[in-house]
Design goal:
20% strand, 3-stranded antiparallel sheet, Rossmann fold, elongated, SIR2/SIRT2 'Small Domain', alpha/beta, 6-stranded parallel sheet
Length: 230
């Protein structure tokens, strides 16, 4: 019985209309993406960073899951073994597509985090500098997303799953961001079969035993059907 670990990246949400952080040359309002996705950028200009995440949060609320999200939810429901779904995405499209267990290693757009006491809560539609924490009242609320230079969430749980998996799939990932880009090697060391499903080869495509290329809405449902023996 396969113990499956799936990693998803921005490519699975693209067909839902969710753009990537590095779209349009990696610029946003003539600013490098690092200016809106690092602790240093937030310290320099919290108003600009909040404006960026307010826009992203509103965009995420307007899009819908696609056939790839729905296929992975079906796999979680119907596969007799364990299916651990890990995403680098900060949208909620996996949940909207029917998945009830998703590990958000880079946080969630819908979440807020207090930089003073680490309290977490559901973010309002718009946040601004000085927004108070509902737990300690400190004016240090920030988006609950993992920025460059910060440690991703749930790493112990993820590595535990990788250490026992028999099948690992990376879907819509660039293979450029670590530690996620190294998951395929962890799965390989555990003896798992590894597959990359992507629109085009990732930076670590040579680490995979199997590759499938094409739009996620076509490749992912077909792969899920095969895994489920259909």
């Amino acid at each position: 019985m396969d113990n499956i670990v799936i990693l998803t990246g921005a490519g699975i949400s693209t067909e839902s209309g969710m753009g990537t952080f590095r779209g349009a040359g990696g610029l946003w309002e003539n600013r490098r993406v690092e200016d809106v996705a690092t602790p240093e950028g937030f310290a320099r200009d919290p108003e600009m960073v909040h404006r960026f995440y307010n826009m992203r949060r509103q965009k995420a609320a307007s899009v819908r899951p696609n056939a790839a999200h729905e296929a992975l939810a079906r796999l979680q429901r119907e596969h007799p073994g364990k299916v651990t779904l890990v995403t680098q995405n900060v949208d909620a499209l996996h949940e909207a597509g029917g998945s009830d267990s998703v590990i958000h290693m880079h946080g969630r757009l819908a979440g807020a985090l207090c930089a003073a006491c680490d309290h977490r809560w559901e973010a309002p539609d718009e946040m601004h500098p000085g927004f108070p924490c509902p737990a300690c009242a400190a004016p240090h609320a920030r988006p609950d997303v993992v920025w460059f230079g910060e440690m991703p969430y749930h790493m112990e749980e993820i590595f535990d799953a990788l250490s026992t998996c028999t099948l690992f799939a990376a879907i819509g990932t660039s293979g450029q961001v670590y530690p996620a880009a190294g998951f395929v090697q962890e799965a390989f060391r555990a003896g798992a079969h590894t597959v990359e499903i992507n629109l085009e080869p990732s930076a670590v495509v040579s680490d995979f035993a199997e590759t499938r290329f094409g739009p996620a809405t076509q490749t992912v449902p077909a792969w899920v059907d095969e895994v489920l023996g259909r």
